[in-house]
Amino acid sequence: MRATAERLGAIQIDSVNVLARAHYLPTFSRYGAYPTRALDDLAHGSRELFEYWGHAACFLPIDLYPLMRWRMELRTEAFGWFKKPRLDFMEAVYKEVAERGPLGASEISIAGKSKGPWWGWSDGKLAVELLFRSGRLAIAGRRNFERLYDLPERVLPAHVLTAPVVEPREARKQLLIRAARAMGVGTARDIAQYFHIDAWWDRASVKGRKPPARTQELFDELVEDGRLQHVRVEGWKRPGYIIPEAKIPASVHARAIVSPFDPLMWERKWTKSVFDFDYQIEIYVPAPKRVYGYYVLPFVLGDRFAARVDLKADRKTSTLLAHAAYVEKGRDAGEVAHELADELRAVAEWLSLDSVKVGGKGDLARALKRALA
Questions:
Q1: Beta strands 319-327 and 355-361: pairing type?
Q2: Assuming Cys at both sites, which of 138, 240, 302, 346 could form a disulfide with 233, CB separation 3.0 to 4.6 Å?
């Protein structure tokens, strides 16, 4: 779990639990079965990971906390846009958390009512989220996946909170290096997307503050300093970047089911340009318009995507359901089915499911059924 977090620099958190919650899958994809409590322990026990906005809501290695302070400070500066009643309300929420925390947003006495499902947040939920994003609150843990908010000094290690502030320009550079190391290779745009270095909310104008440096300037300086290298990639119109110590392996023998929320899938244009693999998560697509299925996970074999499979963990029947399976163009269906069957057995065992059942949809379904027989 430590190795995954260090290698990737960020593990996206998501509530989707069709197979397993998305943040538990990247470690399984890279290392196989492990106790999922290891992630919870690192995040909410030893505090080697912390929760913040990296790519999206992510678990990040604790050494990245100083590199996120510039983003927190921007959120604090943005409070200047709010009118006094909003600021007073936020301060009242902060004081209640300070007195009673850790608290879920639903436990705040002055929170008010939610305005609807999903993003229809109550005023209290909005307040704690803004305070969290500005660094005035931190995530102490989760209860039934609901965030628990508390003061940073009661959550995070003291040495992290007292670490010297990293100048914003340098912090952004260091995050770009971490992103390049995690991705292997990418254009400036690809790599900047990893931690959303060039996101509009980090570039928004705040009165009295100098606009941040253009991202390309940061790449140019990193190359000049020898911290990144230019590379030419066949078929790419723009230059790529790698870390100087990057090594190209002689061969790759990977076999993995990959979450739609895995860093490998974050920047779909990058995934297409590197692996020639088009992917779209179809959870939010109306059923009649879905091409492959509801919760389709890519399957990596060797150094390429070989298939995609629509999975669901049916915990009532203790069955891993593969509603549909599709082989990628140019891949041998028999070989892929054999390898995918073994991987599905491993997934079922990890999730303590007793069996694997394959539906009839997809051009790989029949071969996969035979391989599992």
A1: parallel
A2: 240
Instruction: Give the separation between CA 19 and CA 51, rounded to whole angstroms.
Output: 22
Nearest to 170 by CA among 159, 181, 178, 162: 178
Task: Confirm if 191 and 179 have CB atoms less than 8 A apart.
Answer: yes
Q: What is the pLDDT of residues 6-61, one digit of tens each?
A: 999 999 999 889 999 999 999 999 999 999 999 999 999 999 999 999 999 999 99
d(CA 235, CA 50): 38
Other beta carbons within 10 angstroms of residue 194's beta carbon come to 25
Angstrom distance (rounded) from CA 43 to CA 108: 24
Residue 153 carries which DSSP code?
A: G
Residue 207 clears pLDDT 60, i.e. is over it: no
Sort residue 144 into left (φ over 0), alpha (ψ -120 to 50) or beta.
left
**DSSP reduced 3-state for 135:** coil
How many of the other CB atoms lie within 10 Å of CB of 319? 16
What is the rounded distance in angstroms from the CA atom of residue 146 to the CA atom of residue 134?
19
For the chain, state the CA radius of gyration: 22
Distance linking the first and last C-alpha atoms of the chain? 33
Kindly report, residue by residue over 146-177, the tens digit of the pLDDT.
999 999 999 999 999 999 989 999 999 999 99
The Cα 315–Cα 186 span in angstroms is 39
Cα distances (angstroms) measured from residue 54 to each of 12, 58, 61, 360, 369: 8, 6, 11, 39, 40
Task: Report the DSSP beta bridge partners of residue 51.
Answer: 59
- Whole-model pTM? 0.93
User: Is 249 exposed, middle or buried (CB count within 10 Å of its CB: 0-12, 13-18, 19+)?
Assistant: exposed
Q: What values do phi and psi take at 370, rounded to 5?
A: -65, -40
